Amino acid sequence: MPESQQQRRKRNTVDLLGVTVDVVDTEGLCDQIVEFATQEKTRTVMYVNADCMLLADKDKKYRQVLNAADLVYADGVGVVYAAKLWGYSLPGRSTGADFMPDFCRTFAGKGLRLYFLGAPDGVAERAAERLLQQIPDLNIVGTHHGYFSPAQSDEIISRINSAKTDIVVVGFGAPYQEVWIHDNAHLFDAAVLWGVGGLFDFLSGKTNRGPQWLLDHGFEWLCRLLVEPRRLWRRYLLGNTKFVLFALWRRFQDFIKTIF
């Protein structure tokens, strides 16, 4: 049996609105990334939140890319609640800004080599510097901003491969980062290609996340909206409402099908 089929058989997943989502908690996510990083085959790790689910419904290629990934985790409380409509139980959301320092301590202990790719110039570098202040033995072998042309991809990938990278942390934002990872995965020597969205903005201190008690109760969207209202009001006020209605409508359609 091909390795990819073996891997998929081991996965515990649910089909949520046409997207395969792994039933994995934050600790299990870290364990899985470490396991991937010790294997020779290049694996892809991606996340979904309410905005991603709406994009995936409209964008067929993005949906196909998500469903071709080796691991897709819930990075948003909306996805967890939506899963409950179908009777699925996801362990909870796993948000990079919360778990990344702890993950990096684990990566350092395993001797894994990381490369940060994404965000505006200097942001990924600053994120790396701040993590190294907390975890001096963390091995970040390079950083590069995410504002490069498609024609420059080969050169950047070559640089990442030359650094003997184990985990490439890619922060372009969805759906571009997922499609880029999927289309270029065959060029990488790294074991893990991991899409993380705006994580570098948070790790670098560029973007404030808000009070922890709000974050812990699923209101990170509100904190982000208050910090960047002009940029994010459409996504969170309109997008979140649209996602709730979308999930309820799809659940109603499925219910009607069971009757007729």
In short:
The chain is of the alpha/beta class.
Low-confidence runs: 1-9
> Helical amount among residues, as a percent range?
40-55%
Q: Return the average pLDDT rounded to an integer.
A: 89
Structure annotation, total helices = 13
| Secondary structure tally: strands | 8
Main sheet record: 6 strands, parallel
The helix-and-strand class reads alpha/beta
Q: Beta-sheet strand percentage?
A: 15-25%
Main sheet: strand order: 4-3-8-7-5-6
What is the CATH topology descriptor of the largest domain? Rossmann fold
Can you name the CATH architecture of the largest domain? Answer: 3-Layer(aba) Sandwich
Order of helices and strands: HEEHEHHEHHEHEHEHEHHHH
Radius of gyration: 18 Å
Distance between the termini: 39 Å
Keywords:
260 residues; six-stranded parallel sheet; two-stranded antiparallel ribbon; globular; disordered N terminus
Can you describe this structure?
The chain is α/β, with parallel strands linked by helices and 260 residues long. The chain contains 13 helices and eight strands. The protein has a six-stranded parallel beta sheet, sandwiched between helices. It has a two-stranded antiparallel ribbon with strand order 1-2. A hairpin with a 2-residue loop joins β1 (13-16) and β2. α3 crosses α4 and α12 packs antiparallel against α13 (229-259). The longest helix has 31 residues, at 229-259. The chain is globular, with a radius of gyration of 18 Å. The N and C termini lie far apart (39 Å). The model is unreliable at 1-9 (pLDDT under 50).
How would you summarize the topology of this molecule?
Blueprint: H1 3-10, E1 13-16, E2 19-22, H2 26-37, E3 43-48, H3 50-58, H4 60-68, E4 71-74, H5 77-85, H6 96-110, E5 113-118, H7 123-134, E6 139-144, H8 153-162, E7 167-171, H9 176-184, E8 192-195, H10 199-203, H11 212-216, H12 220-227, H13 229-259
Parallel strand pairs: 3-4, 3-8, 5-6, 5-7, 7-8
Antiparallel strand pairs: 1-2
